Known about the structure:
By secondary structure, this protein is of the alpha+beta class. It has six helices and twelve strands. The chain folds into two domains: 5-72, SH3 Domains (SH3 type barrels, Roll), CATH 2.30.30.40; 77-181, Beta Polymerase, domain 2 (2-Layer Sandwich). It is elongated and about 75 Å long.
Amino acid sequence: MSHQPNNVFAGTQVVSLVEVRGTNNSLVHPRGAVGVVTRTPTGDQNQFLVRFPDGFEASLTREQLDVLKHFKDQLPDAESPCGSSDLETLVIYRCVVGSRAYGLDDDASDTDRRGIYLAPADLQWSLFGAPEQFEDNAAQSCYWELQKFLIMALKANPNILECLYSPMVEKVTPLGEEILTLRE
């Protein structure tokens, strides 16, 4: 039905999977830059013309680009930023909040965990940035990205204050310790 490779048409937003270089091989756009297809291959051609927001245009093959929507679908989801096992390595502080933290729980009480995660540089500097928080309703847990946590702490957000002063700390790294020393 379509003549275009993998149905990429003019006007499709795409992500560059390679560095985009200009004259003298100078870097114009890093890998992950978003542009719009302005011309599709015809005949024996195999390159798409992609225009970036600054007006720079580059010819890219199908292997050098991905459709933005498909690219986003491959990113970590809100339940698991880098895979569930990887989240644990990013957590710098975790505590129990709510009734269990203060000995007010009963048999029907769940365990609510809150914490802070430090996003790795490649996620922080990616096209979409680090997610501000991850919630797992089934596990009753929520982890805030460090910057968001600090901003909300400065605004005296009650959820953040409860987290900072919880008597039940389950995990704290040296960076987490630094944050706790700043409470006062």
